[in-house]
C-alpha cells in the first residue's frame, strides 16, 4: 500500500479523533474476553447516536434506512479487535456492539444497539 496515502489517512483520523472524539468506556464480555471480564477500558471515540445505515431487505427497491448509534475508534487505542456482544458506555448509556467494521487503515466502526434501561 502507498505509504504516503497510509500516513495521510492516519493523520486525518488522528485529527478527527482529537477534534470530535469523546471519552468512552469499552466493556469486554465474559463470553468474548474472559481474561478482561470485569475490567473497563477508557478510550477516545467519535460517537454518532443516529447514523443512517442502509439495510437491504431482499431486492431492488427494498432498502430500509435505519438510524443506528455508531462509535468509531482507532484499533491501536484498544489493543485488540472489538467483538460483537461486548459493550461500550457513552455519556453514561450502555450500548451492545452489533457489528464490527474495520476500515483497513487502523480505524474501526462499531455499530451499536442501546441496552434497555434496568428496572
TrEMBL record:
Domain of life of the source: Bacteria
GO biological process: virion assembly
Protein name, entry field: Phage protein
Lineage: Bacteria, Pseudomonadati, Pseudomonadota, Magnetococcia, Magnetococcales
Amino acid at each position: 500500500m502507498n505509504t504516503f496515502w497510509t500516513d495521510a489517512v492516519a493523520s486525518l483520523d488522528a485529527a478527527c479523533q482529537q477534534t470530535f472524539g469523546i471519552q468512552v468506556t469499552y466493556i469486554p464480555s465474559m463470553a468474548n474476553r474472559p481474561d478482561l471480564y470485569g475490567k473497563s477500558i477508557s478510550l477516545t471515540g467519535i460517537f454518532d447516536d443516529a447514523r443512517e445505515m442502509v439495510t437491504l431487505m431482499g431486492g431492488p427497491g427494498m432498502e430500509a434506512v435505519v438510524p443506528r448509534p455508531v462509535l468509531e475508534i482507532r484499533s491501536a487505542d484498544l489493543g485488540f479487535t472489538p467483538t460483537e456482544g461486548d459493550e461500550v458506555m457513552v455519556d453514561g448509556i450502555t450500548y451492545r456492539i452489533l457489528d464490527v467494521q474495520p476500515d483497513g487503515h487502523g480505524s474501526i466502526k462499531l455499530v451499536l444497539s442501546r441496552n434497555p434501561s434496568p428496572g
